[in-house]
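Consider the following assembly input.
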Amino acid sequence: MKLNVGKIFKKKDTAEVKVIKLNDDNSVNAGANTASANKADKDSSAQQSNTEDDVTVCPKCKQEFKKQEVKDNLNVCVACGHHYVISADKRMKNLVDKGTFKPLKCKVEFTNPLNYPDYEDKILALQEKTGLDEAVLAGTAKIDGYDAVIAVMSSKFLMGSMGIAVGEKITNAVEYADRKKLPLIIFTASGGARMQEGIMSLMQMAKTSAAVEKFNNNGGLYISVLTHPTTGGVTASFATLGDITLAEPEALIGFAGPRVIEQTIGQKLPEGFQRSEFLQEHGFVDQIVPRDKMRETIAHILRLHSKRGK
Amino acid sequence: MVKEIDAKIIEIDNEIEKIKAAEVLDEAQLYVLKRQRHDLIKMCKDLGPHDKVYLARHKKRPKITDYIENIFEDFFEQQGDDLGKEDGSIYGGIATFNGVPVTVIGHRKGNDLTENLKCNFGMPGPEGYRKALRLMKQAEKFGRPIITFIDTPGAYPGLEAETNGQGTAIATNLAKMSALKVPVIAIVTGEGSSGGALAIGVANSVLMMENAVYSILSPEGYATILWKDSTRSDEACDMMKLTAQDLKGFKVIDDIIPEPIGGAHINPKVVYKTVSKYIAKELSKYSKMNEDDVSKHRYKKFRNIDADYLKLL
């Protein structure tokens, strides 16, 4: 699949991202079939409220577009800029220099500590559907020439919830960045802890946070990018521990979910509550960065950290 | 089961009170009632998860203030997060334990409705977690071991809590606690729900009272997510594996502190003695470690906490 990102990347030097392709042999889903990886790209296209197969209605501006048009625009509405969900694969492709992505070797065997019914079937079906082995895609790559460790969460995989495998993949990425003295970039997208794994899931919050703290104490740079949605146990662990915190526009970011809060306080939440702009206003986000500016913004931050001031 | 037994015990207690208050003491009846009470308590064996949840939340269950009063000496309370707010749901300060200065921190639910409200029923906002962290960093500065008492339905899911960075506050505690250079002992005394519990639970030793529970979410919350029906919480309890015995099996906790039959509230004096003994035992493990080793020990513990379930391919 080729991405036509010309609409977004106007800078000449970023034109190369047009044809970035994560090779199948580089793909994390060594076990899953490659057909499903291709399918993941298809699934990542905007599908909400479509009347016909190739048409989508933007949930924000209600205008009708050809799916392909939105897809070619990094899953961002061409009229109002609404950010649709994007697959981990596609996000990674749009971020890194062509051909530089190498997945980290960290494949975790399925585990079911609560003996939760039908859990394994669910995971297998999701692996098939998304082409990912779990809710994180992690690897090393160059961004505008700068080496980095990058982990991208996928809300398409059981709402990006964090169980043992996700916790391990994140921790492994942090530790790899620590060992190799590389900057760390994590794109979060998660409903929180994974209910199916109970207390073992809660413990991933401590595990990942401890790893980030160690990395932090060793002088590592961690850029956290909050995308829609980032809630629960992920918000209350590595997502909010970045040196620099970026957010995509209008992403839902919070600890408790809006429904739980409404039930607790017995009233409707104000418009825009727990959205990126709200968090920025309250001092928890450095900058809100639209998807088409993400690559150059991160490259900018990496550039500023490439030389140490004495 | 325990819930029904407890209701009967409360009835008997009321009867006993009446007899004691009467002008002429009916000793025969008093004996019968006390005997009945005793027999009822003896029935509280082989408890199921939802029984334990009931006991863990029991109104008369010993609380942080009781533990501090009965286990520690010379307590000095510290309030405030130093950033603009005091959160009553986290209680803490400096005290001595067997003559050694320590920092004690825990969730506070309060003993009556006025206190409950003041303590927000033990559900902290970010200010509470920041206060806890302030006390912990201070403990580190002065080389004091930290003892935390966990008893919370969870971090408060409110408008203000979210606005002020609930997630960030919890995350910061998890991160900073993991690197503390002084020993940390955490005891789950009642209910330990969600990140709100873990935020003061990243400890070298994590202990649980025999009838305490520790889980990703309250059983009601879990049932809501699973079946959109909070009344099915008993089912959720059975599924969640939240008892001390389950968690010892998972190696998420290090030890279980026994309680009297019927729960900690049946004989608190015995509980204080036992808890004190366990704290002393755990602290002695770390007394000879240097500060880096103490911090490494804790890091390793949480790095490998899922080792039994984690298999890399």
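Strands of chain A lie at 55-57, 64-66, 102-103, 136-143, 146-153, 184-190, 222-231, 244-247, 253-254, 287-288. Ask yourself how this observation constrains the way the partners meet.
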